[in-house]
Design goal:
Radius of gyration: 17 Å
Order of helices and strands: EEEHHHHE
Shape: globular
Oligomer: single chain
Structural class: alpha+beta
Largest sheet: 4 strands, mixed
Number of helices: 4
């Protein structure tokens, strides 16, 4: 009999606190890389704020070069994993430190290459760190998040996230 564990019985995301969304997931059984199931809407929430963050920092970087330097500052491996993206055998074949921009870009690039691929359990802590940086960026810098042109209400700001295994 085939294992039919999926995301369908994982609770929908909900607020843990005023500014923290809890996103449920379940490890996929029998996979070596430890991919996880989660609701499609939850993955889309993460991807959309990753995209929005990159768009904002790229746009603002022309007028605020210090911001561009900050988001491209290499992070310690305890904050974000090193990247093998630039690992070339003809060069030095050494993994490099990620920046928030390079890590988020890598997550999005992987998604665009293979939309059916899910996050791995190992990525979840790093995704939380990135989303929390995004939360601070939009809330502390006063970045204009836009508005709905039909009713002129401000768009929703991002929230911090926390994952919970079910």
């Amino acid at each position: 009999m085939t294992n039919t564990v999926s995301y369908l019985d994982i609770p929908k995301r909900d607020f843990m606190w005023d500014d923290v969304l809890e996103i449920g997931y379940r490890p996929k059984s029998g996979n070596k890389v430890k991919y996880v199931y989660m609701h499609k809407e939850d993955k889309e929430y993460i991807y959309s704020w990753f995209q929005r963050f990159l768009a904002e920092v790229c746009q603002l970087s022309t007028h605020d070069p210090v911001l561009w330097e900050q988001v491209n500052e290499p992070c310690e491996p305890s904050e974000l994993p090193k990247s093998g993206c630039f690992n070339h055998p003809l060069l030095d074949n050494v993994k490099r430190k990620n920046t928030i921009v390079s890590y988020i870009s890598g997550v999005l690039s992987n998604y665009y290459r293979n939309p059916a691929q899910d996050f791995t359990k190992k990525q979840l802590d790093y995704i939380v760190r990135c989303q929390n940086m995004i939360y601070s960026f939009f809330r502390c810098r006063g970045v204009n998040v836009g508005y709905n042109s039909n009713n002129f209400n401000d768009n929703e700001l991002p929230f911090k996230i926390q994952f919970r295994e079910y």
